[in-house]
Model the fold of this input.
Amino acid sequence: MLKLKLNHKDDLFKFILSIFVFGIILIFFTVVTVILYYSYPAVSRFGIAFLWTKEWNPPKEIFGAATFIAGTFMVTIIALIFAIPLSLGIGIFLEEYCPKFLKGFFTIIIELLAGIPSVVFGVWGVLTIVPWLRKYIEPFFKSHFSFIPFLQVTENIGYGILAASIVVAFMVVPIIASITKDSLAAVPKITKDGALAMGATRLDVIKDISLPFSYRGIYGGIILGFGRAVGETIAVVLLIGNQAIIPKSIFGVGYTISAVLANTFTFAVISPIYASSEVELALILLLVSLIVNIIGRNVLQKVIGGKLSRAQFGGG
Amino acid sequence: MTDINKNNIDNITENNKDEIKIEVKNLNFNYGDYHLLKDINLFFKKNSVCTILGPSGCGKSSFLRTLNRMNDYTEGSKLTGEVLLDGKNIYSKSVDVVELRRNVGMVFQSPNPFPKTIFENVAFGLKIHGIKNKQFIEERVEKCLKYAGLFDEVKDKLHKNAFSLSGGQQQRLCIARAIATNPSVLLMDEPTAYLDPAATATILDLIADFKKFYTIIIVSHNIQQAGRISDYSGFFLDGELIEFSKSGDFFTRPKDKRTENFITNRF
Ligand SMILES: Nc1ncnc2c1ncn2[C@@H]1O[C@H](COP(=O)(O)OP(=O)(O)OP(=O)(O)O)[C@@H](O)[C@H]1O
Ligand SMILES: [Mg+2]
Done:
């Protein structure tokens, strides 16, 4: 790179582009470095116990992430429980059953859904999901299922883990559904034809051929969806109730890492240890998202992009 | 054109009509507005090998796929006419497509094993058709692998993934898979297209042997091959059946100039 001959236009262009690329790498490392640097005081003061300390008390300067980790975990898992079957159903329908002219239309709708700003989803959730939970779902569960742990209704306000999870699920569905569709599309037609020619029904083909062939791609899509759900912020802030407690029920209110950062980081800067503790929350989120995305992309790369390594699939 | 078809058929009908396995009557086939197969009439006799020849794009594969209704799932496809299998129209409403495909096996141009083990590949059809008896399935899998001349090569790795086999082995596996449901007809669309000469020879020997059990219809690009293994040959051009006769006549005394051109250009 240092020996570039700048008298060639081509080389100059290449040099400028290299600087841009270098800039991106620099930004990435700056983010990681700054987060590590500013979280260091909290990391050294609270140690690993930060992860399971439940108290979050700025006046007393006691900080623990357990309530936010629990809230984040619950929202992510419940959102995925809703989103996975729905997305697989949509992906399978679009690729295997949908008539061509509708497929294009539905695909566009899914892409549009994926592009809706999350605050809009949040507002929509407040206007529809919250009253629906408050008026119908929570009273129903209260009178019929109050004996089941995790399903008890105490406040009946509509806001809480479940409301946030449902809306996050809607935001994750387009990701998993479109990756499911693409993974299924990568299954060789001749293999599916082979099964049909044996007398397999379309359902047999999906079950025995398409899903075993494409499960890695779908798995990668789920991991990317997980990454999206873990980091989702604004919609959650609007819906989760924002209280630093460990929810005892899916109807309870709670808090997530991203939500507490969005709500309080501007005040936190008044106290160094308060600020540092919040940056440590950001560090947890950063690490989880990085790991999840690296795994998800690795899995996907092996499947999509024409590089179906057939030998890796199936039972043998 | 139709006259020539009728003549072909008359020649064959002189023989015993009971020996007819498949009879195609006035078959027309469309992909949307594209009228591909035009008024096809021919017979396939029981326990014979018939080769379908013709230049690329003339409709050979499409024709073959009308014989086990594989075009059912092709959007916009349209078919008129009849395909009688043992005297019964396979396109009539009462026909069970699953049962039809059990009876009419298909082998494809390139090996297409399922993402499963060797054993599961051969057992697939049996499972699909509701057979659960483990011992029966095991015996049947072994028998079919033996018929396909593959058993000795794979007997120690039946539970390995089918993709671990060579191309030629995979194609023989696909043949074993196709015969596992005990069909009476085998459709083969250029089954040796992607195989080397040795693997091709193995499969051609199989086909010659299989005549005892099945009625075999092969699409081929290879005229010499067709002459060697088939009892009947048909020549398609632009979706029309130009000539259909006993291979001996077909290759030595073609009736149509176009058939002659096709044969001689390639010899
Ligand atoms: N699903 C489809 N939809 C529309 N047109 C098709 C479809 N499948 C095939 N065709 C067209 O029908 C014609 C015949 O195709 P077909 O595959 O039957 O030819 P073929 O004789 O088997 O050729 P080849 O020797 O190259 O395999 C071609 O022009 C092809 O483009
Ligand atoms: Mg073809």
About this structure: Confidence is low (pLDDT under 50) at residues 1-14 of chain B. The interface with chain A takes residues 68, 70, 73, 75, 97-102, 105-106, 108-110, 112-118, 120, 124-125, 128-129, 159-164, 174, 177-178, 181 of chain B (CB under 8 Å).
